[in-house]
Amino acid sequence: NDGVFSIYVKENDTLLVSGIQFYYREIKITKDILHAEKIKIDLFQKINELEEVELKSHNLIGNITVDAENAPIPESKVAKGALDFSGINFSKPVISNIDEIDRRKPPDAERLTSPMAPVGGNILGLLSFALDPLIDEVSKIGQNRRKRKRQEYLFEKKSKEVPDEIVAYLGESFFTETLKIPYEKINDFIEYCKPKGLHRFYVENKKIEAIDLLIKEAEEFNKTD
Q1: Residue 51 burial (CB < 10 Å; 0-12/13-18/19+)?
Q2: 8, 32, 2: which is closest to 171 by C-alpha?
């Protein structure tokens, strides 16, 4: 159940590992493996793409004439009785004793007549009020620009490490035996897959997508040899 097994082998034997849900692996038995008496084999699970299935909460077909008759009518969200005006006597006029003019606050006569009052209000206050959002926006743009440059630098640095990391992660036998890539052309093959998104997949830790891309492109790469 835990995937551990024992098998008798000798040097230069080839161990084949396959499964319906895993990619095929070949491991050549070397002196180092025999000396260690133990080997860890990483299997990469296949991804089965299913056909698209569209789920609908209705049976509409896109024909306006037909759908108009079959479209469900939503229940009203208005509380029951909210539109019942039977208790209101509309024959009586609605009269208010409150004079809205009397309720208004009188203007500040001192401020309006003072010779020291600035014309047009407080200019500095208005300028500060108007410039604050602009200053904040410029500051945000600067922060976003620095953040973007930092991300670009890290991505570029990580991209340079991708070839060595991929070979170390998958093992040379994955390229030479599973993908049939000659040993001396492993780096060329990785560089060949770079424009197709390999580095981006690996940097973003999408290793399954990266492996799938390598498998798909290996056959085409071998044809160009």
Answers
A1: exposed
A2: 32
Strands (E), the chain: 14-19, 22-28
Let me know: does 44 contact 22? Beta carbons within 8 Å. Answer: yes
What's the pLDDT score for residue 124?
A: 52
Q: What is the pTM of this model?
A: 0.35
Burial 95-130 (b: 16+ CB within 10 A, else e): eeeeeeeeeeeeeeeeeeeeeeeeeeeeeeeeeeee
Taking residues 57-72, report their average pLDDT.
62
**What per-residue confidence (pLDDT) applies to 56?**
65
Q: How confident is the model at residue 130 (pLDDT cuts 50, 70, 90)?
A: low
The residue ranges of every structural domain in the chain are: 7-46
